[in-house]
Protein: Maleylpyruvate isomerase family mycothiol-dependent enzyme
Amino acid sequence: MTEPTPDRIETIDLLAQQWQAVTALVADLDEDGWRTPTALPGWTVFDVVAHMIGTESWLLGEKPPPRDTADNEIDVRELPHVRNETAVMNEIWVDRLRPLTGARLLEMFGAITDRRLAMLGKMGDAVWKTPTPSPVGQVGYGRFMRVRLFDCWMHELDIADALGRTVDEGGPRGEEAFAEFAESLPRVVVKRGKAPDGSRIALDLTGPLARTLSIEVDGRAAYADTFDDPTVSVRLDSRLLVRLGGGRTTADEHSGDITITGDEEVGLRVVRNLAFTL
Structure:
């Protein structure tokens, strides 16, 4: 069965809103603020925005700027958090943009995202549905753009957390980004959390994206509409779930914020092994 492709107009509009939200979040930063460390290994707020510029530039067919020969060359493959070629390219973009000021980087971010929106606006439905490689496999280009929305939404949260600021994690952007995030949870619960066959896991979420996610393991994990007798129920804030899934924190650091009812061993194993995007 071919999965439906997200609506083109709606997704482009949400991407535009997402990039505007990032711009507003960093617009008042001085240089010290730009260089604030984030939860991402080795990356500051500046680096997170540089990474987003790099990805959108790549989608426009552009290459990283040349290295300044006056700077010491860094072999990004030796960085401990770089594990694949995508991460290598990410680090090259970030490294090449680091000599810029925050103000100049923000100008670039605005220019690149404007060009991306123009490109997407000219895209017809046929191209939008065309299968293309993405971080989640070969999917329609529109699904890839929902992945981009999720990625940029996560990075908005990274920046806000680093700066000690609060942003709206619900609403249409949050709902659509979370829908992409939630696609991976059943697989993660089984492969990383080792949920046993026959188990039923209820993730009871509070907070801005409150809902219950019911995952049933029957040979493979999949969402169920509901079930009356879960093997384990895990109650936590949606904001915490997203950060656990993103590898930005650990369940043990938030043990007081997670309530497990039922099979505690399974519940603990699941929440301690949710990270899949870092």
About this structure: The chain has two domains: 8-162+172-181, 184-271. The domain at 8-162+172-181 is CATH 1.20.120.450 (Four Helix Bundle (Hemerythrin (Met), subunit A)). The mean pLDDT is 92.
